[in-house]
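Quick one, T. Sequence first:
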Amino acid sequence: IDLQEPLEIDSMRLDDRSVSSFKRDGNVYHIDFGETHFINNAKPPLPRKYSLEIWYHGKPREAIMPPWDGGWIWSKDELGRPWMSVACQGLGASVWYPCKDHQSDEPDNGATLSVTVADSLVAVGNGRLKDTKKTKDGLAVWTWEVKNPINNYNIVPYIGKYVNWKDTLKEENGQTLDLGFWVLDYNLEKAKKHFNAQVKPMLKCFEYWCGPYPFHDDSYKLVEAPHLGMEHQSATAYGNHFVNGYYVGGDKGIDGSGTGWGSKFDYIIIHESGHEWFANNITTNDIADMWVHEGFANYMESLFVECQYGKKAANEYTQGERSGIRNSSPIIAPYGVNKEGSGDMYPKGANLVHTIRQIINDDDLFRDILRGLNKDFYHQTVDSKDVEEYISKKSKKDLSKVFDQYLRNSKLPQLEYKFKGDNMSYRWTNCIDGFNMPVRIIPSNEWLYPTTEWKQTTVTADIMDKGLQADPNFYIRVKKND
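Structure tokens:
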């Protein structure tokens, strides 16, 4: 059982008996139950269900700059009233409660969270509100229940002077999805106008591209938070101050793509809600593969732009995000050491997905793959390789070298070419051995199939005059060899 210092376990109970043998080793407690728990009269022996209760105490680590430097958030709202929550992705949920703190470990049947607060405050949690009761000593207990598998870091309370409203959305399968919105009382009218304009169009867009909302039983909620935002399953944390773009202070948000399209939507609503499909529905076993969460969620921003403003706008948005790519280290980090890869997992991950979309060259098939991922890996934990092999199999294209180049290598592949007479020679450089990604050239829309060895073809006078131009939707560099 993981529990980070300075929190300490006081006692444990297994079913109806005390557990006396447990020992601390850093942030881990090793527990000896004294026996193996199986139903031994079955053939083969079956695991037995049991209940482990843990009592613990202490003041959890305080977040210094949430959500990046995580922990418990002790904050005040604009009126000086208590406002609290938790943000602990990467750091781990064991920063505030005992658990098996690994991204691959999710409870099969969900979780229940009961929060006891002063009765003047409201406590919001994941899933649906099951019960609220006041006690005689001026406290109130709010109980929330999640029925679906959920990652430990996604289970969080929000405590403050909340008010809420409800809505519904008709899904493509005919079911009605319940929507809930929880904000600080003085932001109610502003929040209604801002959320109502964006949430339903977003959910319909994501449903079209990626399939139905993955946590129907637990509903969709957007909760105002004392930090910028986080993908807390069925209770998405929102702190973008009701502005479009990415909040930077005052009443301003910036467009990270520099194209203007990012100023037409609220980055936190779109990006963090996109994680319901990629991160919460499909979760990686190791945070080294976190590009599956962030790259796809970033690309869902482009899909939202496409739904609202068309494909040309979405292409421009995706290409504009390249200004934030450093190409200084691989997107995938070493495994087994709780280490995230390069921050390029966001914009470069999105551009990898966009490049693969170009290679597939069939938007209906690309959409089927996105929906298939969310259906076939529904509520599962995966490795990057599972996702990579799935896309290759469904597209009937061997994309292994493409994934290796963009995920496990930091170099940007370069399409090098040179002329001799009417002939053009071309090859891939600045790349891994065996890199063989096809690329579309413009304006002819013809395809080249470069490898790391020189190939040759005849070209038109126009190409001789203007040079080789690749479709800008491929994230590559083109260089003439003089």
